[in-house]
Amino acid sequence: MDDERITGLFFARDETALSEASEKYGAALLRLARRLLGSREDAEEMLNDTLLRAWNAIPPARPASLGAYLAGICRRAAFERLERRSAQKRSAELVELTAEMELCIPDPRSGAEADESELAESINRFLAELPAEQRVIFLRRYWFADSIAEASQRLGIGESKVKTTLFRLRKRLRKHLESEGFNV
Amino acid sequence: MNGENLLKSLGGIDERFVAEAMSARSEGRRTAFCAGPERRPRHIGAAAAACLAAALIASAFFASLRRGASEGDVLLGSGEPGSVESPYLLPSRAPQISEAPAVSDAPETLLLDMGAIHINEQESIVSDSAPYFAPALYRDERWGSAAVEEYFGRSFAPAWRPDDLASVSDGGLMATVKRESGEVVWDELYLVYRDEDYPDPIKRGFTVIASKLGLGRCCVYMTDSTETSDVFGTEVVFGHCRLSYGPYDPDTHEPSGWYDIYLADFELDGAQVSVTANRLTEEELVKVVASIISGTDGIELVGA
User: Fold this and answer.
1) What pLDDT, in 10s, does the model give residues A152-184?
2) Are residues B101 and B125 in the same domain?
3) B202: closest CA among B277, B267, B270, B140?
4) Angle B197-B202-B204 (CA atoms, 0-180°, nearest 5)?
5) CB under 8 Å to B57, separation ≥6 — which residues?
6) Which residues of chain B have pLDDT under 70?
7) Do residues B31 and B25 make contact, with C-beta atoms less than 8 angstroms apart?
8) Distance from CA of A74 to the nearest CA of B (A)
9) Residue finishing a domain among B108, B143, B173
10) Which among A68, A99, A108 is the nearest to B18, CB-wise?
11) Hey, what CATH topology would domain A92-179 get?
């Protein structure tokens, strides 16, 4: 079923919207949550939570891309859960991603906090300047938490190219953040 | 802010970018970017500009062929030198059109596409020590530049290097070890370029090591997976590692700082060559290596 019809079911308060959304996007959402949270049980809980939040938000929300909208809810919910956990309880994948992200921060030792929405806006400007392929590689890794092998396979390019592209993009993001005053 | 904050804040980015990445999937060898900002009409102008640029490059290429490729510069792509897809054109491999007279003595600039350069990220790197040669059986010799060039049949001194780096290896002296019979059993050309005024214990600079007998005491080796890059027809393995340096904090074990080390390994005219760079940028290292291979300093990196 296409996104428009599923969204229509949400608007009609028809509960089959949930099963249709789960059938179409459940596997991707489970994988995303599992990589961030590290356990299948937590990921399944996150999927249910995502669908419930979507049910409560649509309407009035009418997402342009249902998949991206649901993935956004799932990702936010996963990070909310992570915030409630102690720092030690992090999946190996998340620790790896976090370490890579550290390389984009101009001065990670400063300890200063950055406004999250301002940061997101700045990253939007950074992403808008990138060629589509580079932007997709960046997002597959740092938004969807793909492994290098998964991103490589999905995009049909070599793992080395994925690694090299990410390496360069981290350096560019660091410069970009610095130029926009995120010296934190 | 830490890495997790930054990772989390990515959640607030434009949903169009997320949709674009969600729908991107390989279709055979090409990746389809089914949705996203590129489809917006305002980008049609950029696409048209790209087509126009491609057409101009192609026409410049054919024009250069007509001129015997002697004027100005050439070309981007991949494939055999001299073909339309060639990423570069070496002076020695330029298409030879005998009836086309040289129009200009202007030096050629070689273009190198950074998009085709793979940097292999290394978890760690390892070093080795020199073998021991018993003085009773072997004798050491040091060769000057002329002997070195005669031995290798070429120079390994980079034709280009960053302005702040100076040679500190006296023009290419080389340590060799010979048996009493005169047979060379150890050959190591060791060229060092450094910024002696760099305000840090780890100086900015690079070394070039070359050997026909095999690099037995290369400073560092890449041990992780490697993919080669094509630099003017020579396969090169580029690598990168981020290393810490001391003194280390006695309580937290935090290092005094970090620096980038870039590596390049390749074979050239029967010699193994290894370039190790401290605190150089990726672009600087690639340009140094390209200048060793091509023998010219007229190199322009594109797509950097």
Assistant:
1) 888 888 887 888 889 889 988 988 988 888 865
2) no
3) B277
4) 55
5) B75, B76
6) 26-107, 124-130, 170-172, 216-225, 304
7) yes
8) 10
9) B108
10) A68
11) Arc Repressor Mutant, subunit A (1.10.10)
Tokens of B87: 């990423």
Q: Who contacts B66 (Cβ-Cβ below 8 Å, separation ≥6)? A: B97, B100
Task: Point out which residues pair with B225 in neighbouring strands.
Answer: none
- In the CATH hierarchy, which top-level class contains the domain A3-84? mainly alpha
Please give the Cα distance from A81 to A84 (Å, whole number): 5
Q: Token match 């005669």: residue?
A: B150
Please indicate whether, in this complex, the C-beta atoms of B26 and A182 are within 8 angstroms of each other. Answer: no
Q: Which residue carries 């428009």 as its tokens?
A: A4
Of B2, B12, B21, the CB nearest to A139: B21
Q: Which position has the token pair 């799932």?
A: A74
Q: Among A29, A27, A25, which residue's Cα sits nearest to residue A3?
A: A25
Asked if B241 and B124 touch (Cβ cutoff 8 Å), the reply is yes
Cβ within 8 Å, pair A142-B7: yes
Examine the pLDDT at A43 and tell me if it is beyond 70. yes
Q: How many CB pairs under 8 A join A and B?
A: 163
Strands B234-245 and B257-268: antiparallel
- A85 to chain B, any CB pair closer than 8 A? The answer is no
Of A67, A127, A164, the CB nearest to B13: A127
Q: State which residues form the domain around B287.
A: 119-302
Distances (CA, A) of A14 to A1, A8, A18, A75, B79: 14, 9, 8, 25, 57
Torsion of CA B203, A164, A175, A141, to 10 degrees: -140
- Separation in Å, CA B192 to CA A40, B153, B189, B282, B292: 54, 20, 10, 18, 14
Model confidence, pTM = 0.59
ipTM of the complex: 0.86
Tokens representing residue B17 in the block: 């970018």
